[in-house]
Design a protein that fits this description.
With about 290 residues, the chain is of the alpha/beta class. It is about 30% helix and about 10% strand. The chain contains 10 helices and 6 strands. The strands form 2 sheets. The chain has a 4-stranded parallel beta sheet. The chain is elongated and about 70 Å long. InterPro entries: Bact_solute-bd_prot1, SBP, SBP_1_CS. Keywords: Cell membrane, Lipoprotein, Membrane, Palmitate, Signal, Transport.
Length: about 290
């Protein structure tokens, strides 16, 4: 058997998990990777010179043709990026997409048909754990001497915080990066006589500045800050909403929750920021 060549990418690490797990018959277990609510290393930055994989737990690939089935219900252009990055690097590997979204209903339907998954893209691992689809990859990382330092600080720590076992284990690797930016209109700030945003501002400082540019000018109502996804502000705390062992909701015990809700309450109470007369609010998660 031939050793895998140097220059592997994170997807390959996931393939390692797959190839080692395939020896277990009758299992729906799939390798997994994380994506989406938190910043992750960009696809273009994922190539890294990895060391030889000859370690205590050798990872090998014979080069035979392999087809991998990946659950990923994202936009076509993102799927094409993933497909191309794998197949260009490993011509003998073909990837097949199941276009359903990663949720309990779709997984149940897939397995009811007798189909299986090799990889899936998800943000949480609890659902995968319920289907016996999770396996820590720390030993694979150590065996391949894969360099996790290629990712921005905090990314891997964030993924470890999602361990459904609460043991800080790593179950997947990032495949894309989502960064949030603060965009502003200088003319509006000039209209209110407010200073422009600066690099390095905290959320509290941003809210204070947003209050200065919230109001009415020349018959036009201005809202100083629009947050498209409130959840991204909470994920920066890197904490779990429930106890992984007992399932207990941690709202009253985890200080980060109070800090988050106090922050959102401050945003809500900026005069003129929230206009309930023209906005419909819902707690529907669909």
């Amino acid at each position: 058997m031939n050793k895998i060549n140097k220059g592997v990418i994170p997807v390959l690490v996931l393939l390692m998990v797959l190839l080692s797990a395939c020896s277990s018959s009758g299992s729906n277990r799939a390798a997994n990777t994380a994506s989406d609510t938190n910043p992750t290393a960009s696809p273009q930055a994922q190539t890294t010179p990895a060391a030889d994989t000859a370690a205590a737990d050798p990872i090998t690939y014979t080069g035979e043709p392999v087809t991998l089935k990946i659950m990923y219900g994202a936009a076509p252009e993102w799927w094409e990026l993933i497909r191309k990055s794998i197949e260009d690097k490993f011509p003998n590997i073909k990837v097949e997409q199941t276009k359903q979204r990663y949720n309990s209903k779709n997984l149940e339907e897939l397995f009811a048909k007798g189909e299986s998954l090799d990889l899936f893209v998800a943000q949480d691992y609890q659902l995968a754990k319920n289907f016996d689809m999770t396996e820590p990859i720390d030993d694979k990382i150590a065996a391949s001497k894969y360099d996790l330092s290629i990712y921005r600080d905090g990314i891997i720590d964030n993924l470890r915080s999602r361990d459904p076992e609460g043991k800080n284990q790593l179950y997947g690797l990032p495949i894309s990066e989502k960064r949030y930016g603060l965009f502003y209109n200088k003319s509006i700030f000039d209209k209110f006589g407010a200073e422009y945003p600066k690099d390095g501002m905290t959320i509290d400082q941003t809210l204070e500045l947003a209050q200065k540019v919230t109001g009415e000018r020349d018959g036009v109502k201005y809202k100083g800050l629009t947050i498209p996804f409130y959840s991204f502000m909470f994920t920066q705390f890197g904490v779990s909403g429930t106890d992984p062992k007992t399932g207990e909701v941690l709202f009253s015990k985890e200080p980060a929750f109070r800090q988050y809700f106090e922050m959102m309450d401050k945003y809500k109470h900026i005069p003129g920021m929230i206009d309930t007369s023209d906005t419909e609010y819902s707690f529907d998660t669909e």
